[in-house]
Design brief:
Layout (H helix, E strand, L loop, with lengths): L2 H40 L2 E14 L7 H6 L8 E9 L2 E7 L12 E7 L2 E7 L13 H7 L1
Parallel strand pairs: 3-5
Antiparallel strand pairs: 1-2, 1-4, 2-3, 4-5
Protein backbone atom coordinates (compact mmCIF):
# COMPACT_ATOMS: atom_id res chain seq x y z
CA UNK A 1 0.00 0.00 0.00
CA UNK A 2 1.12 3.46 -0.70
CA UNK A 3 1.60 6.02 2.05
CA UNK A 4 -1.26 8.13 0.69
CA UNK A 5 -3.83 5.36 1.22
CA UNK A 6 -2.50 4.65 4.72
CA UNK A 7 -2.79 8.33 5.65
CA UNK A 8 -6.32 8.49 4.22
CA UNK A 9 -7.37 5.35 6.14
CA UNK A 10 -6.01 6.79 9.40
CA UNK A 11 -7.86 10.08 8.82
CA UNK A 12 -11.04 8.15 8.00
CA UNK A 13 -10.73 6.10 11.19
CA UNK A 14 -10.22 9.26 13.28
CA UNK A 15 -13.29 10.89 11.67
CA UNK A 16 -15.45 7.83 12.36
CA UNK A 17 -14.34 7.75 16.01
CA UNK A 18 -15.01 11.49 16.35
CA UNK A 19 -18.53 11.07 14.90
CA UNK A 20 -19.30 8.24 17.32
CA UNK A 21 -18.08 10.29 20.31
CA UNK A 22 -20.10 13.34 19.21
CA UNK A 23 -23.21 11.16 18.79
CA UNK A 24 -23.04 9.89 22.36
CA UNK A 25 -22.24 13.35 23.78
CA UNK A 26 -25.24 14.77 21.88
CA UNK A 27 -27.55 12.10 23.29
CA UNK A 28 -26.33 12.86 26.82
CA UNK A 29 -26.83 16.63 26.35
CA UNK A 30 -30.30 16.04 24.90
CA UNK A 31 -31.28 13.98 27.93
CA UNK A 32 -29.96 16.66 30.31
CA UNK A 33 -31.88 19.37 28.42
CA UNK A 34 -35.12 17.36 28.69
CA UNK A 35 -34.65 17.06 32.47
CA UNK A 36 -34.09 20.82 32.80
CA UNK A 37 -37.20 21.51 30.70
CA UNK A 38 -39.27 19.31 33.04
CA UNK A 39 -37.95 21.22 36.07
CA UNK A 40 -38.80 24.58 34.43
CA UNK A 41 -42.31 23.39 33.61
CA UNK A 42 -42.85 22.14 37.17
CA UNK A 43 -41.94 25.52 38.69
CA UNK A 44 -43.82 27.61 36.11
CA UNK A 45 -46.55 30.07 37.09
CA UNK A 46 -48.62 32.47 35.05
CA UNK A 47 -48.32 36.20 35.78
CA UNK A 48 -49.79 39.34 34.35
CA UNK A 49 -47.13 41.98 33.71
CA UNK A 50 -46.55 45.28 31.98
CA UNK A 51 -43.44 45.17 29.80
CA UNK A 52 -41.36 48.33 30.32
CA UNK A 53 -38.28 47.56 28.25
CA UNK A 54 -36.48 44.68 26.58
CA UNK A 55 -33.06 44.14 25.08
CA UNK A 56 -30.06 41.89 24.71
CA UNK A 57 -27.57 42.75 27.46
CA UNK A 58 -24.52 41.19 29.01
CA UNK A 59 -25.21 39.30 32.22
CA UNK A 60 -23.20 41.78 34.31
CA UNK A 61 -24.92 44.82 32.78
CA UNK A 62 -28.45 43.39 32.94
CA UNK A 63 -29.00 44.18 36.62
CA UNK A 64 -29.81 40.61 37.58
CA UNK A 65 -29.19 39.49 41.18
CA UNK A 66 -25.55 38.78 42.02
CA UNK A 67 -26.29 35.12 42.80
CA UNK A 68 -27.44 34.62 39.19
CA UNK A 69 -24.18 36.08 37.87
CA UNK A 70 -22.14 33.96 40.28
CA UNK A 71 -23.91 30.72 39.31
CA UNK A 72 -23.32 31.12 35.58
CA UNK A 73 -20.15 29.64 34.10
CA UNK A 74 -17.34 32.12 33.51
CA UNK A 75 -17.34 31.62 29.73
CA UNK A 76 -21.03 32.64 29.53
CA UNK A 77 -20.83 35.81 31.66
CA UNK A 78 -19.80 38.00 28.75
CA UNK A 79 -22.43 36.64 26.35
CA UNK A 80 -25.53 38.70 25.65
CA UNK A 81 -28.84 37.35 26.93
CA UNK A 82 -32.41 38.48 26.24
CA UNK A 83 -33.53 40.57 29.23
CA UNK A 84 -36.99 42.01 29.92
CA UNK A 85 -37.77 44.75 32.44
CA UNK A 86 -41.37 44.34 33.55
CA UNK A 87 -43.75 45.61 36.21
CA UNK A 88 -45.32 42.68 38.01
CA UNK A 89 -47.91 44.02 40.43
CA UNK A 90 -46.27 46.92 42.32
CA UNK A 91 -42.70 45.66 41.75
CA UNK A 92 -40.41 46.33 38.79
CA UNK A 93 -38.49 43.14 38.00
CA UNK A 94 -35.72 42.21 35.61
CA UNK A 95 -36.34 38.84 33.99
CA UNK A 96 -34.45 36.67 31.54
CA UNK A 97 -36.31 35.40 28.51
CA UNK A 98 -36.31 32.39 26.20
CA UNK A 99 -34.74 33.16 22.81
CA UNK A 100 -37.83 32.01 20.86
CA UNK A 101 -40.20 34.07 23.01
CA UNK A 102 -38.11 37.27 22.99
CA UNK A 103 -39.23 38.63 19.57
CA UNK A 104 -42.90 38.10 20.50
CA UNK A 105 -42.80 40.30 23.60
CA UNK A 106 -44.31 43.74 22.93
CA UNK A 107 -42.85 46.81 24.65
CA UNK A 108 -45.12 49.07 26.73
CA UNK A 109 -48.01 46.56 26.67
CA UNK A 110 -49.55 44.22 29.18
CA UNK A 111 -49.06 40.48 28.66
CA UNK A 112 -49.75 37.25 30.48
CA UNK A 113 -46.47 35.36 30.77
CA UNK A 114 -45.48 31.94 32.06
CA UNK A 115 -42.54 32.53 34.41
CA UNK A 116 -40.30 29.97 36.06
CA UNK A 117 -38.14 31.75 38.64
CA UNK A 118 -36.72 34.71 36.72
CA UNK A 119 -37.06 33.01 33.33
CA UNK A 120 -39.95 33.79 30.94
CA UNK A 121 -40.88 30.65 29.00
CA UNK A 122 -44.12 31.66 27.23
CA UNK A 123 -46.11 34.82 26.48
CA UNK A 124 -49.75 35.46 25.61
CA UNK A 125 -51.40 38.75 24.79
CA UNK A 126 -53.70 40.04 27.51
CA UNK A 127 -55.82 42.05 25.11
CA UNK A 128 -55.56 40.37 21.72
CA UNK A 129 -52.95 38.21 20.06
CA UNK A 130 -49.22 38.79 19.88
CA UNK A 131 -47.49 39.06 16.52
CA UNK A 132 -43.80 39.21 15.78
CA UNK A 133 -42.81 42.66 14.50
CA UNK A 134 -42.21 42.88 10.77
CA UNK A 135 -38.57 43.19 9.79
CA UNK A 136 -37.60 46.06 7.54
CA UNK A 137 -36.86 45.06 4.00
CA UNK A 138 -33.35 45.71 2.80
CA UNK A 139 -32.51 47.87 -0.17
CA UNK A 140 -32.07 44.91 -2.53
CA UNK A 141 -35.36 43.30 -1.45
CA UNK A 142 -37.25 46.55 -2.06
CA UNK A 143 -35.65 46.95 -5.49
CA UNK A 144 -36.53 43.33 -6.39
CA UNK A 145 -40.15 43.99 -5.36
CA UNK A 146 -40.39 46.84 -7.84
Amino acid sequence: MSTLTIVLLVILAILIIACIVLYFLGKKAEKRQAEQKEKLDAAAQTMSMLIIDKGRLRLKDAGLPQIVVDNTPKYLRRSKVPVVKAKVGPKVMILMCDAEVFPLIPVKKEVKATVSGIYITAVKGLRGSLEAPQKKKGLLARLRGK
